[in-house]
Amino acid sequence: MYTWRQKGCVRVRKEIQKNDMAREESQKNHGNASVTLRTNKITPVFFGATLVLWLGSVIFEIVFKRVELVYVVAGCCFYQMANFVMRFAVSKDPLTVNTSVSLFHSTICSISVVFILLNQLASKSFEEAFDHSQLFGGTWPGAYTALCFSCGYFAYDQWDMLQHHLYSGYIPSILVHHFLLLICFTLALYRNVTINYLILTLICELHSIFLHVRKLRRMAGVRNAKSKIVKMEWVLSWMTFFLARLGSHILITTKLIRDANKFGKGVELPLALFGMAGMNLLNVFLGLDLLKAHKREIKNSQQQYHRD
Prior knowledge:
Elements: H1 2-39, H2 42-64, H3 70-89, H4 94-123, H5 126-129, H6 132-136, H7 143-164, H8 173-191, H9 195-201, H10 205-219, H11 228-258, H12 268-307
Helix pairs in contact: 2-7, 2-8, 3-4, 3-7, 4-7, 4-10, 7-8, 7-9, 8-12, 10-11, 11-12
């Protein structure tokens, strides 16, 4: 009987120690999170303030100048509704929901851009479709609405990431990316210029599809780099990165530089070059991150294989 009691006491003490350790770890993690939030308050404040100013500007333009900008607000509402549906049907996890909606947008946007381009190339020659007068002052059928909807998505996504802290670092590249796009897209929509140029920049959403697929795949626990599905995903990801993202943005920048003398003395050319410089720089960083991720995934799979 004494031995049984001794064992029971030892078991109880171990459980108490285990609970205490878990509580200490939780408090430690909570403390670290609090420190991070305290020292990084400027990021959500800055990007949140710019988003509020942007929304006020858009509403002013809709009420007093350009009613067709209502499609920007419609885009915000559409993707926010998609967020609610994903949260109800897929997962309650904010990151999973955000990534699922981003995949949804990339798919819709890619289909829209490809359809717009094919429609133009079916009715015009390549030289006519991509002439400076068309890219700068023209608006392809469906281009304005598609750009408005994408602008609305980037505003929604910025808000969702700020609301759920889905970013890292003091200057998160994803928030900077959305900030640049909102400035360039909105000013172009206000002045109704360079709409077709900006539609061409959205070809990169073809690559974004595979970025979001990879993220969701890893969330689901599928991380074996040797599986055929994962290998095919990486092949398509690298192809679309070099062709649809890096290559297309370099070509657009080259076109802007070649046609610089055709722009006149407005702010359009400096703003376009500034925006493309930012995009190209972010593309380089993204490519380096992808390379590191690919190598890490292969290394982890090899270690898992040797362990098994």
